[in-house]
Amino acid sequence: MKVVIIGCSGHYSYALEDIKNDRDASVAGIAPGSEGEDMSAVYQEVCNLGYTPRLFDDYISMLDEVKPDIAVINCFFGHHARVTMQVLKREIHAFVEKPVATTFEELEELKDSYSRSGAHLAAMFGIRYYPHFYTAWNMVRDGTVGQIRLMNAQKSYKLGRRNEFYKIRSTYGGTIPWVGSHAIDWLYWFSGEKFESVFASHSARYNRGHGELEVSALCHFTLSNQVFGSVSIDYLRPQKAPTHDDDRLRVVGTKGILEVRNGKVFLMNDEIDGIREIPLQSKRSMFLEFIEQVRGQGECLISAQDSFYVTEACLKARQSADEEKVILF
Amino acid sequence: MKVVIIGCSGHYSYALEDIKNDRDASVAGIAPGSEGEDMSAVYQEVCNLGYTPRLFDDYISMLDEVKPDIAVINCFFGHHARVTMQVLKREIHAFVEKPVATTFEELEELKDSYSRSGAHLAAMFGIRYYPHFYTAWNMVRDGTVGQIRLMNAQKSYKLGRRNEFYKIRSTYGGTIPWVGSHAIDWLYWFSGEKFESVFASHSARYNRGHGELEVSALCHFTLSNQVFGSVSIDYLRPQKAPTHDDDRLRVVGTKGILEVRNGKVFLMNDEIDGIREIPLQSKRSMFLEFIEQVRGQGECLISAQDSFYVTEACLKARQSADEEKVILF
Fold it and tell me: Mind listing the pLDDT tens digit for each residue in B50-71?
C-alpha cells in the first residue's frame, strides 16, 4: 500500500500518526501541491518514521512515476479540487483536506471526476474521530436526546500569524469553508437531516493584517423537519487561552440536551437527575479506517457523498455571507 | 407613591420583591388585565406584605378611581400594549412586562401614546439586573474584551404545562418575543450597536399539546459595524435538569471573550493567563430604580426607547421566522 503526500498546508499529520500502525503501508513520495510549499519539514517527519520517500517538485510526475495507491492531499485550500481530480483520474484513492473544493464549479467537476473513477475519496473531517465528538454522536444515535430540534455549534481559534495564502480568497477559500466546515459537518452528521437553507455573515475587520481572511462569522442553517442549526466561527480566541481551539456542540432534542465542550460530553435527559458527564469511547483512527476501506475491509466514518455535500453547504454559506441573502439548497 | 397591579401573567413579582423596601410606596389596587386572569393569589401576596389593596374587576375603573402613580402591567402578552396605552394616557407611569407589544401596529400606537404622555415607561428586562449579567455588562463597558465582533445568546426553558393563553399567537405573541426578547436585548445592550437585519426560524413541532407555541427557535442578527449575534431559544430543557432555565451569553471581542453561564461570569483576554471567573457585583433593584426615576432621582437601566427598540427587533425576528426571509431594519 503505497502512500504519497501532496502538500503540507493542512492535516497530513492525520495520515502520519496512523500509518505507522499499518505494517503494509508506507510513504513512498512527497511533493508540493501548491507553488511555494516548502516540503522539507514533512520530508524529515516521514524519514523519522523510518520511510524513505522520494521527494518530487511536481506532484503529477510523482503520481505517474510512483503510481501510489493513496494520495494524501493538503495543499493551499483553493487547490484541493484540481489536485484531487488529477489523483482520481489515475484511479488513486484520495484522502483530501476539507473543503474538497472552494468554488461551485470545481466542486461539480470534482464530483464528475469521482463518479468516473473507481477510487475512493474521503475529506479530512477528523473531528468526527475525536473521542468526545464520536462518543456524543453515538449517544445521539442511541436516542438519548430523542428527536433533534436545534443545534448550536462553535469553532473558535487563535489567529496567531497565518501563512500568506490565508490572506487571499482564491488560495484560502474563506473562513466558513476552512474553519466552519467542521461545525457544518456536525450539524449534518449528528442530525441526519438535509440542509434546506442558509443565512450567513462574515467579517474581515480586526484581522490583524491578514488581508481578506474573515475572523468572525455566523451561519444559520435550516434543515429538513424544521431542525435549525447555528454555527459561530471566530479567530479571536486570546493568545493566552488554555488551548488553541474551543470546539463546542449543543444538541437539543425532544428528550434531552447533549453538549460537547472542553473535550468532554455532558448529557441531560428525562431519565437523568441533573447533568451527567459521559465516559469517552476509545479513539478510532481515521486514516487506518480509510486504508481498510481501500482494501475492501470496512468503511470509514466519512463517505465521498458526505465530503461533497458538506463542502456544498460551506460554499452556500459563504455565498450567503458574500451576497447577504438566504441561499436555498 | 400609589402602585396598582394589572394582571398576573408575567413578572409582577419584580415589583413586589422591591416595593417593600420603599417606605413611601404601597400597592393600592389590583385588577386583571385580560379576561380570565385569576387575581386571588396576587391579592393574597400583596396582603401578606402588609398592604390593603382594593380588588377591581376592571382595570380602567381602577385607574380612574385609585389614580395611581405607577401601574405594573403583566396580563396576557398580547394585551400589554392596549392596557399600557390606557395607563399612559392617564399620565400614569408604566412598568410593563416585555414584549411591550406583539404587533407592529400596536407598537407604533404605543410609541405615539408614550410620546404624547409625560409618564415614564420601562419594560421588565429584569435579567439586566441579575448580578451575573450586570457584572458582565460592566466588564464589557470597561473594555475587557475590546471591540465586540460576535455574540451567542441562549435561552433554554423547561416547558411544563403552560396556561391556555400561551397556546394562541394572539394572546401569547410567540416564543421569540416572549422568551427570546431577553437574549435579543442582550445583543443590543452589550454591543451598543444598531440592528441591521434578522433571519430567524421557529417551530411548534413536539410542543406537547401547546397549540401554536413554538418550542424551538433560532435568530441571526446583523448589527452595525459588521457585528453578528445568534439567539438560540428552546422550551426543551428536561424536567429533571437542575434549574428551570439555562441563560447564556458569549461575547467575542478583539481583546477577549466573556461568557455568562450557570449564573457566573468567565473572562479570557490578552492580559489573563487561562480563564478567570469574575466576582459578581451586588444586586441592584429594578423596580426601586424605576420608582426613583419617577421621583426624578435617577435613571433605571432600561429606557422607554430601549423597550420599544428591542420589541421591534423581536417582532421583526418573528416576522422573519413566519415568512422565512431576511427582514431589514
Answer: 999 999 999 999 999 999 999 9
Instruction: Show the beta-strand stretches assigned E in chain A.
Output: 2-6, 26-31, 54-55, 70-73, 93-96, 121-123, 148-156, 195-203, 216-223, 227-234, 248-253, 256-261, 264-269, 276-277, 327-328
Strands (E), A58-113: 70-73, 93-96
**Residue B276 burial (10 A CB sphere; 0-12, 13-18, 19+):** middle
Rounded alpha-carbon distances, angstroms, from residue A307 to A60, B3, B320: 23, 63, 31
What residues contact B34, with CB distance under 8 A and at least 6 apart? B7, B9, B75, B76, B79, B165, B171
Q: What is the rounded end-to-end Cα distance, in angstroms, of chain B? A: 39
Q: Give chain B positions within 8 Å (CB) of A241.
A: 257, 268, 274-275
CA B138 to chain centroid: 19
Evaluated on CA atoms A27, A31, A37, A39, the torsion sign reads positive
Q: Which amino acid does the sequence have at A239?
A: Q
Residue of B nearest to A243 (CA): B274
- Please enumerate in sequence order all residues whose Cβ is within 8 A of that of A284, keeping only pairs 6 or more positions apart, or say none: A129, A134, A301
Question: What confidence score (pLDDT) does residue A283 get?
Answer: 86
Global model pTM greater than 0.90: yes
How many angstroms separate the CA atoms of A107 and A121, rounded? 13
* β-bridge mates for residue B268, sequence order: B257
Q: Write down the H helix ranges in A206-303.
A: 286-294
By the CB < 8 Å criterion, does B256 face chain A? Answer: yes
pLDDT single digits (tens) B69-108: 999 999 999 999 999 999 999 999 999 999 999 999 999 9
The candidate with the shortest Cα–Cα distance to A84, out of A104, A55, A60, A105, is A60
Q: How close is the nearest chain B Cα to the Cα of A128, in Å?
A: 24
Q: What is the dihedral of CA B212, B217, B221, B227, to 10 degrees?
A: 160
The greatest distance separating any two alpha carbons of chain A, rounded to the nearest whole angstrom, comes to 62
SS3 A73: strand
Closest residue of chain B to A150, computed from CA coordinates: B216
C-alpha–C-alpha distance, residues B274 and A239, integer Å: 9
Q: Are A266 and A154 in contact (CB under 8 A)?
A: no
Flag whether residue A209 sits within 8 Å of chain B, measured between CB atoms. no
Determine the residue type at B277.
Answer: E
The residue among B278, B284, B241, B285 whose CA lies nearest residue B263 is B278
Can you list the domains of chain B with their CATH numbers?
Answer: 2-119 (3.40.50.720), 127-283+312-328 (3.30.360.10)
Q: What stretch of H or E contains B234?
A: strand B227-234
Helix (H, G, I), strand (E, B) or coil at B224: helix
Inter-axis angle of helices A181-191 and A304-323, nearest 10: 120
pLDDT digits (tens, 9 = 90+) for A232-268: 999 999 999 999 999 999 999 999 999 999 999 999 9
Cell 421588565, residue located:
B124
Q: Do B238 and A150 touch (CB under 8 A)?
A: no
Cα(A47)–Cα(A27) distance, integer angstroms = 9
